[in-house]
């Protein structure tokens, strides 16, 4: 029997899932297999892509600018999100029932922290771009110390939101406040998280809208003096494209998940949030892959650095394989490597 005001720290995960009405499967269902397969694929792509972004920023001195520090932090947050989602994929489905309360809060906390850091960094990048445009500079002259403090602030906020549920913002002592999507969390936590992300999006819309109108007005004024209307139109269309891509990616990846979080947080009983929650979480995780394409891969210098890094990896691998093949050939008494053109033996210096 459930008593109001009593705490249930010694209960199992199944107890809280039954209380919230969320099914806890004891075997792998087709839906679980599909979600895990997609989740593992997305996680691996997120890890590889963001590792490449971090390596590019670290290896190219041209990227040692405030905006690229923030892009590196975004890649680090998305890399963390990939690790968190990978951890979730190995502790979901029938394995959820075997988790301890601490293990469940760890699984949830990793996701909340990484995704919060990613969203907060997106806002920081928008603010930095606003400063750059208003100062008419390619990169803003923010001191490195202030950039570091900004990054530290992002992670402090992310860790705060990620750790709060495990220590206080849960429903272990108030079962009537438990959410359906996350049966150990308070509905108010989900509502605040969703509203916070919505606020970040609205701030990004305001910042990028101000950037767009400022640049359009400035370019139009220049066009009147130098009569370069085609170039003005091209610049304006390019800016519109950039803003649409940035905000569109955020809306597509985040809005579905934030809507169901908000509905669950507000206690909507008629809303079937459990039918779509796993897919919408996967879509939010895919944003960590999209961020690399939207914020880094559209940079020409970044693309060149990617190609150089990938070529280095390929050449090193080819060199090792060639060296191994040569040593094997030398070890055989009658083995010769022949060139197809003239039949002469291939010399070691060619390898």
TrEMBL record:
- Superkingdom is Eukaryota
SMART domains in the record: 7TM_GPCR_Srsx (SM01381)
Pfam families hit by this protein? 7tm_1
Matches recorded under SUPFAM superfamilies: Family A G protein-coupled receptor-like
Compartments, as annotated in UniProt: Cell membrane
A Gene Ontology molecular function term of the record: lysophosphatidic acid receptor activity
Keywords, sorted A to Z: Cell membrane, G-protein coupled receptor, Glycoprotein, Membrane, Receptor, Transducer, Transmembrane, Transmembrane helix
One Gene Ontology CC term in the entry: plasma membrane
Kindly indicate whether the keyword Glycoprotein belongs to this entry: yes
UniProt xrefs under InterPro entries? GPCR_Rhodpsn, GPCR_Rhodpsn_7TM, LPA_rcpt, LPA_rcpt_EDG4
Q: Domain G-protein coupled receptors family 1 profile, which positions?
A: 49-295
Q: Which GO terms describe its biological process?
A: positive regulation of cytosolic calcium ion concentration
Q: Membrane spanning segments where?
A: 33-55, 67-90, 110-127, 147-170, 190-215, 236-259
- Main localization (coarse): membrane
Q: How does it sit in the membrane?
A: Multi-pass membrane protein
What family classification does the UniProt entry report for this protein? Belongs to the G-protein coupled receptor 1 family.
Q: What name does this protein carry?
A: G-protein coupled receptors family 1 profile domain-containing protein
**Native source species:** Colobus angolensis palliatus
List the top taxonomic levels of the source: Eukaryota, Metazoa, Chordata, Craniata, Vertebrata
């Amino acid at each position: 029997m459930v008593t109001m005001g009593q705490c249930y720290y010694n209960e199992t995960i199944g107890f809280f899932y039954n209380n919230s009405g969320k099914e806890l499967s004891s075997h792998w269902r087709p839906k679980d297999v599909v979600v895990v397969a997609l989740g593992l694929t997305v996680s691996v792509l997120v890890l590889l892509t963001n590792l490449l972004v971090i390596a590019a920023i670290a290896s190219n001195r041209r990227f040692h600018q405030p905006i690229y520090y923030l892009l590196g932090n975004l890649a680090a947050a998305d890399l963390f999100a990939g690790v968190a989602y990978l951890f979730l994929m190995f502790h979901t489905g029938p394995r959820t029932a075997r988790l301890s309360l601490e293990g469940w809060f760890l699984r949830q906390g990793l996701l909340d922290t990484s995704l919060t850091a990613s969203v907060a960094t997106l806002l920081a990048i928008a603010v930095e771009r606003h400063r750059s445009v208003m100062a008419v500079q390619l990169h803003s002259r923010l001191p490195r110390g202030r950039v570091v403090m900004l990054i530290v602030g992002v992670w402090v906020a992310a860790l705060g939101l990620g750790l709060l549920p495990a220590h206080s913002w849960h429903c272990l002592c108030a079962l009537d406040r438990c959410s359906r999507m996350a049966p150990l969390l308070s509905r108010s936590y989900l509502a605040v998280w969703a509203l916070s992300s919505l606020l970040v999006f609205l701030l990004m819309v305001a910042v990028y809208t101000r950037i767009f109108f400022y640049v359009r007005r400035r370019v139009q004024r220049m066009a009147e003096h130098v009569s370069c209307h085609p170039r003005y139109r091209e610049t304006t269309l390019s800016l519109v494209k950039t803003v649409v891509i940035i905000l569109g990616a955020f809306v597509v990846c985040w809005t579905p998940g934030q809507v169901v979080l908000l509905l669950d947080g507000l206690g909507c009983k008629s809303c079937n949030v459990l039918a779509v929650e796993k897919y919408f979480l996967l879509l939010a995780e895919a944003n960590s892959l999209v961020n690399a394409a939207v914020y880094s891969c559209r940079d020409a210098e970044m693309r060149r650095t990617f190609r150089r890094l990938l070529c280095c990896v390929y050449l090193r691998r080819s060199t090792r394989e060639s060296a191994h093949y040569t040593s094997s050939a030398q070890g055989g008494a009658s083995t010769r490597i022949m060139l197809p053109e003239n039949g002469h033996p291939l010399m070691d210096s060619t390898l």
